[in-house]
Amino acid sequence: MRKAHHTYMNFSLHKLIDELKYDPKNPLVFNSGFFLVFFAVFLLIYLVLYKKATVRLYFLTLFSLYFFYKASNWYVVFLLIAAVADYNLSHLIYNATDSQKKKWLMITSVTLNLALLFTFKYTNFFIDTFNGIASAHISPVKLILPVGISFYTFENLSYTVDVYRGTFKPVNRFIDYLFFLSFFPKLMMGPIIRAADFIPQINREPFVGNRQLGEGLYLLCSGIIKKIVISDFLSANYVSYIFDDPSKHTGIECLFAVYCYAMVIYCDFSGYSDMARGIAKWIGFDININFLSPYQSSNITEFWRRWHISLSTWLKDYLYIPLGGNRKGKFNQYKNLFITMLLGGFWHGANWNFIFWGALHGTALALDKWRAELAKKLRLPFHIPSGLAKAIGIIITFHFVCFCWIFFKCTTFHDSWVMIGEIFHNFRPDVAGALLQHYTPVAIILLLAFVLHSIPVKTEERFQARMATWPLAAMLSYFLICLYIAIEFKQPVPIKPVYLQF
Predict the structure, then answer these.
(1) Which end of the chain is more exposed for a tag (fewer CB within 10 A), N or C?
(2) Residues 3-25: tens digit of each pLDDT
(3) 348 is an active site residue
């Protein structure tokens, strides 16, 4: 009996150790079952420690680093290297009295960060491009893109540039900087956080009242529903099937897949951002909003004010404005917009499809600025009602964004143009009935997604405020209901978040 008990204990201990190790087949993400248990244990410990400032800080930092290890294995080392380098360089920049020395230290920081990013993300892209141009046969390098490297690289860059500009004083303690960089809710997929917004929160005592509980619950449940019930369901049950080989499907099937993918990528990324913000609120931190119902936009400029807000504002402040912004005439403004979005596309991935996607958006932004200037000068002989103009603008903007998503989702140019060709030359509206009959659940979920997305932002904010007044039992019930729905919709094979690859 003792031997059997001892064997069982050893088995349980080994199983626990295996669970705590990095698993390449199941990296730790918010929508995994293990994370719920993991986070519950974290919260229990945090409730005991949160009033002790130093202990709280070290606990949160160590937990964040462990979370990153569970998501990316030994690549956590690169986060530590980047933190050490930029912490020290920022102090050297701040203390330098010579402007040239300041400038070269800042250039060193930018170079080191971009070198790390480019090595892992773009080496094989440049090798493939060189092979194509020079008819060479250089073999690609076996590199795995570290999770979250694009996000924490941009945070490092903004930190040292802000110190260089004199708009932010570097932190005195390395642990503060490491925590800012590694804070686990936003570490892997953003939002991209500015030091000036986050670091002042580190040493104040976290406060979680009814408002934070209510807002956090709403955001967490919203993110779970978006990611698992909408995005994962649409992706697994229709989108992947069509995009794998668009040549095998009619144009109407392809167009339906594009509409579905528009909701897949929005609900996937915004759902993860919502969960990150909700988790942060529950532990007493505020993270900036990253999505604001982007498909309600009536022009492409508005779309980029609502989509991946932390990236678009980063590109504006650290790329578009340094390029000259709108300071040197209209042509230079249009050129700077195009370059900014072209590089924004390149940031998303080492693939010509992403570059073309960025170029499309850059061109559209420039044309939208030109249109706005032209509208000021022209006086139309007739009046278009503002509501109608907005509706037309929303429809046009949404379909342009969907057209661009084709290049974003397809792995090759060839597949992108095949899908576009099917939509325009093999549409086959006669199969619409059969399509809806075979994919009724997909159509219902897509319709639900559009209905939820059409809810005005102010209505959502009012619901969040009302939720903050609920008793704890009601909040818990709401969470359990959302969790039950998510479990019912959860796919047999876990679907990794789209932006995990960036």
Answers:
(1) N
(2) 555 554 555 666 656 667 777 77
(3) yes
